[in-house]
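Re: Re: ligand-bound prediction request (bumping)

Still looking for help on this. To restate: I need the protein modeled with manganese (II) ion bound, output as structure tokens. Inputs repeated here so nobody has to scroll up.
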Amino acid sequence: MTFAPIKLPYEENALEPVVSAKTISFHYGKHHKAYADNLNNLVKGTPYENASLEEIVKKSAGNDKEKGIFNNAAQVWNHDFYWQSMTPKGGEPTGKIADALKDSFGGVKEFKEAFAKAAVAQFGAGWAWLVKGKDGKLEITTTSNADTPIAHGKTALFTADVWEHAYYLDYQNRRPDHVKDWLDKLANWSFAEKNL
Ligand code: MN
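Reply:
Sorry for the wait, this slipped through. Here it is.
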């Protein structure tokens, strides 16, 4: 199997001004592509050669000898998921997903505050996630570097990339502003609802 980033579900300039076309051209065109290229090279001639991306992520997780494979596979998966976690038609959540947020966090506003706080507190490179735990409750979690909730038995609903490469060209060091705008303008609630 040859791995490649998913096709972007919108034009490169569709998420402006929160995520500029220039950011996407580097983030999607260079960073994400490099993870896929690295993975293709790393799995060549290994038992992973014909496995699905998700299988590779789950099986290589926690195995020190397969750290390179895990990091690149997880980053391909995380970024595929990240592009779908955003939409030019962001706004306030409604319906089933809004009800689920209310049940688990007390309200949409409370959820956004908690998610932003976690995303900002993630030290260094990583990801902030809305996930469904094993008990069916929604949770906020962060992961470092390439780590991903699917390696920990959780179902991801959406994710914000908080590696600097995701926002530095547009927001420089202002991660809190980026995360706030991301939640208010780009978060793809219908994608989250589909993953419920
Ligand atoms: Mn990234």
